[in-house]
Specification:
Its EC number is 6.3.2.13. With about 425 residues, this protein is an alpha/beta fold. It is globular, with a radius of gyration of 22 Å.
Length: about 425
């Protein structure tokens, strides 16, 4: 990738290097530094590259990490800051956005250093006050966020995921914790989660269950979210149409973040936050009759949070598990769906290089009563089966892919959207 300068450019690819260009060196590509030098490039780090581009030093960068909740929390902060009149850049799982305009498609949760640099360049040109980014454990472990001067770091939660990469939960927790060990940066920590370690200096906490800097006096999640929040500046009521305790955590984190970043009054923040309508593909109702909900949940904890929020309903749940990822979570996902679903339908997610039927077999190991599960490996046929089973007031919950518009099989990404498939099938019925 190249970033243009006046009469020059910055690249992270040594094969693109020519005399006097700039090679952005990071841990990611350090082994190619010699090749870049041989091609005549000048070697620069992220800070030097930012100076070359004239990236504004006034942009406050916010990094959000955790197993679940990153995307919704980031989107809630972005939405609230926009409503308060600020210019804001957002990047993460859903792509990149600046002031409500989409500027890049979906990619990695946390992009490569050169991509982040290009985003900071766009943010500067759009006079952004804030830069909100999701930070994955992979990015922390691979030093993809090295050289980024965060103004604020936020921790959502930590549950099992990515053990295919980190191997053990303790290593996963260590990597996440390393993001919060510095004394300088302001940190916002979910103190209900005991799996994280952090420096107490410059740290604020939020909690639903404990005494914290920002805690709850009372709350209800029966019809949307209604919560009385105790803050250092007095109590405030947060109202939202979002569902579930997990979204209450997301909104609470977003409220604290905006308070720290802007020093606006509680009432101003509450009003702007209440306008946030959620994120596409996160507990998104894609059809009303029958009611069909799609969600991105793809971990045992994520599934539990979503289905627990919907447990007042009889649920037909369609789900699978991704291939070439943590196999140990598959039976745990199965057990969680069996616990909540009236009718579980196990299907294919993104099998990648694996055999979908072997993934399904792993999931089925988590079921106490395996005969309860309906197995249909073709995802479209599984969704069609779910729609055919609806009688009365049951709802269909389709988990795992959310707003993804592809299904990855044997290295090929085929067009596939759960939402569009539902609409297509309903037209045929």
């Amino acid at each position: 990738m190249k970033i243009k300068l006046i009469n020059n450019y910055i690249t992270d690819n040594s094969n693109e290097c020519t005399k006097n260009c700039y090679f952005l060196k990071s841990d990611f590509n350090a082994k190619y530094e010699k090749d870049a030098l041989e091609n005549g490039a000048n070697i620069v780090d992220l800070n030097e590259a930012k100076n070359l581009l004239g990236v504004s030093k006034d942009i406050k960068i916010v990094g959000i990490t955790g197993t679940n909740g990153k995307t919704t929390t980031a989107a809630a902060i972005y939405s609230t800051l926009l409503d308060l009149g600020y210019n804001v850049f957002l990047c993460g799982t859903r792509g990149a956005f600046v002031n409500e305009e989409k500027v890049d498609e979906k990619g990695l949760t946390t992009s490569s250093p050169i991509k982040i640099l290009s985003y900071l360049d766009i943010a500067t040109k759009n006079k952004c006050d804030f830069f909100i980014m999701e930070v994955s454990s992979h990015a922390i472990a691979q030093n993809r966020v090295e050289g980024i001067d965060f103004s604020l770091k936020i921790f959502t939660n930590l549950t099992q995921d990515h053990l295919d990469y980190h191997k053990t939960f303790s290593e996963y927790a260590r990597v996440k914790s390393s993001f919060f060990m510095d004394d300088k940066t302001t940190k916002i920590i979910n103190s209900d989660d005991e799996n994280i370690k952090y420096s107490f200096k410059n740290t604020l906490t939020y909690s639903i269950k404990k005494v914290a800097t920002y805690s709850l006096v009372a709350y209800s999640i029966k019809d949307g979210i209604n919560a009385i929040v105790k803050t250092p500046d007095g109590e405030i009521m947060i109202d939202s149409d979002l569902v579930g305790e997990f979204n209450l955590y997301n909104l609470l984190a977003a409220f604290v973040a905006v308070k720290v970043l802007t020093k606006k009054t509680n009432e101003e923040i509450k009003k702007a936050l209440s306008n946030f309508g959620g994120v596409e593909g996160r507990v998104e109702v894609v059809n009303e009759n029958p009611k069909v909900i799609v969600d991105f949940a793809h971990t045992p904890d994520g599934i539990e949070k979503v289905l627990n929020a919907l447990k007042a309903n009889d649920m037909i749940v369609v789900f699978g598990a991704g291939g070439d990822r943590d196999r140990t979570k598959r039976p745990l996902m199965g057990a969680m769906v069996e616990r909540f679903a009236r009718t579980p339908i196990i299907t294919s997610d993104n099998p990648r290089s694996e055999d979908p039927n072997l993934i399904i077999k792993d999931i089925l190991e988590g079921f106490k009563f395996k005969e309860k599960a309906i197995i249909i490996s073709d995802r479209k046929e599984a969704i069609k089966k779910a729609l055919s089973l609806v009688k009365g007031k049951e709802i269909i919950v389709i988990l795992g892919k959310g707003d993804e518009n592809y299904q990855e099989i044997k290295g090929v990404k085929y067009p596939f959207s759960d939402k569009e498939v539902v609409k297509e099938i309903l037209k045929e019925i």
